[in-house]
Amino acid sequence: xxxxxxxxxxxxxxxxxxxxxxxxxxxxxxxxxxxxxxxxxxxxxxxxxxxxxxxxxxxxxxxxxxxxxxxxxxxxxxxxxxxxxxxxxxxxxxxxxxxxxxxxxxxxxxxxxxxxxxxxxxxxxxxxxxxxxxxxxxxxxxxxxxxxxxxxxxxxxxxxxxxxxxxxxxxxxxxxxxxxxxxxxxxxxxxxxxxxxxxxxxxxxxxxxxxxxxxxxxxxxxxxxxxxxxxxxxxxxxxxxxxxxxxxxxxxxxxxxxxxxxxx
Length: 264
Known about the structure:
This protein is of the alpha/beta class. The chain is about 45% helix and about 20% strand.
């Protein structure tokens, strides 16, 4: 189907959130709060849980399902303290040798004045640098929108997966169309050019796996997609945890370094 149809499904307010997947897939989730510097950003959730008896750290970018929830969660747009909270939890996971699983759903990092004053760019950049060298297995799953550096800040991982109707791009189709053609109404055309669907990105090697959804999106049968994700996470964690950590780091480095070798 046209790429913009994926965008519309990914943005549906009824689409399952990070907390929905955490509640369904993981056991004994204990949420942790704050960046130990400024405040707790409710657009980013995270804590300790287990899956199939394996202790893990789970981090998600959380949207709301009502206007009130979206205001509380800042429409899934993290402030810098959200990324710093995520970094704190990832470094804690490394210390205690817990694998990290990130669930991503954001149109992008919050671009407000306060966020910029508190170092939004620095927070994202530091996450990229630290994640590249975390000495523990890492998996990211894009469950809705994967927008720009706001998504990449949690996606420098050993494995990057996408749900079938999710999207992952440097900016929104509307933003792309506004910059290229000065006309946001050409977003549908832009979406096809941008190669933002899970199928496109799997073909290009940007992601390793696409998790199936039922027709119309996973909100129509949440259990199907959540159970499938759980099974794939359990299987992949066994593979990653069996690897020597230095081998894992080398493979992670090579994974992201190879993107600079793209040719037309």
